[in-house]
Design goal:
Alpha-D-Glucose-1,6-Bisphosphate, Chain A, domain 4, about 35% helix, two-stranded antiparallel sheet
Length: about 290
């Protein structure tokens, strides 16, 4: 869901540096079919892993599949108000790394615990797309539900990120929710269209051609899981996104940003989600009293 903008700052800095030290034609980049196909294979492998995890008896969340001592440590930390975040890497069916030519796949997972909340409150917040612009500012400038069929949603976000330069994106997403039982839900979100906006919020603003832009964000798939237990609700978010590769010769400078920025943005998303669910739970308790 809101993991949509988690790594805009890293590519933005890469582009800014390249613009200074390299010819102008290095800045713009095209999403090539081989890049998109490799990313699709990576997402397929992630989906296969998640499908298997959702079938496990007594272990609905990713973190519930961790070794026992690590799981206990993570759950206790979450119940004290901590945030669990981990970088992941998925292999193919032959246990080989899936290379993304001319692109980078960013794969992170995180979780929070909201005491006193219910899974229905967590899912209600997730589905309240017309108000995500309120919950997740300043990165979500506008949000809108544009289609609904049962638990199947089509949504629009306008996203903005500022770091060295300002990046604005118009994005469309297909999101489907799955109810397992009264205490377990999960969802899957797929980006349908991501367009970089030039001169955003000005009368002459315009979109760059999709897939022929600065490569800040080309693709995004995300998965969310919600489990009600231990007197509250666990919310887990996993996302895989695709950006342009780091220009040759600048890895020593850009590498740290590529690895750190996605984590920081995921943490902010989870914190905002927890705060918003907590507010809903508090309002419910106030009404009851």
């Amino acid at each position: 869901m809101l993991y949509l903008v988690l790594h805009l700052r890293a590519p933005a800095l890469a582009i800014a540096v390249v613009a200074v030290f390299a010819p102008p034609d290095v800045v713009s980049v095209e999403l090539r079919p081989a890049t998109a196909a490799a990313f699709a294979r990576y997402v397929q492998a992630v989906q296969a892993r998640i499908d298997g995890e959702l079938k496990r008896p007594g272990a609905f969340l990713y973190l519930e599949g961790l070794p026992a001592s690590r799981r206990k440590e993570v759950e206790e930390s979450l119940q004290r108000g901590g945030i669990y975040i981990e970088r992941l890497s998925t292999l193919d069916a032959q246990s080989q790394r899936i290379e993304i030519p001319d692109g980078l796949a960013h794969h992170w997972i995180g979780a929070v615990f909201v005491p006193g909340a219910t899974v229905s409150e967590a899912v209600a917040l997730a589905e309240d797309y017309d108000h995500h612009q309120d919950y997740y500012r300043p990165e979500v400038l506008r949000s809108r539900l544009i289609g609904l069929d049962g638990n199947h949603f089509k949504i629009y976000y306008r996203l903005r990120k500022r770091k060295v330069i300002t990046v604005t994106l118009n994005t469309l997403h297909d999101v489907q929710y799955f109810r397992v039982d009264d205490r377990h839900w999960h969802s899957r979100s797929v980006s349908l269209r991501i367009a970089e906006v030039e001169d955003a919020e000005k009368p002459d603003e315009r979109e760059k051609p999709v897939g022929d832009d600065d490569g800040f964000l080309w693709r995004l798939d995300s998965w969310w899981r919600y489990e009600e237990k231990d007197g509250g609700v666990y919310v887990e978010s996993e996302a895989v996104s695709l950006t342009r590769d780091v220009p040759a010769g600048l890895g020593w400078l850009i590498g740290p940003f590529v690895t750190s920025i996605p984590r920081e943005s995921l943490q902010m998303t989870l914190e905002n989600t927890r705060s918003a669910i907590h507010a809903r739970a508090a309002a419910r308790r106030k009404v009851k009293n």
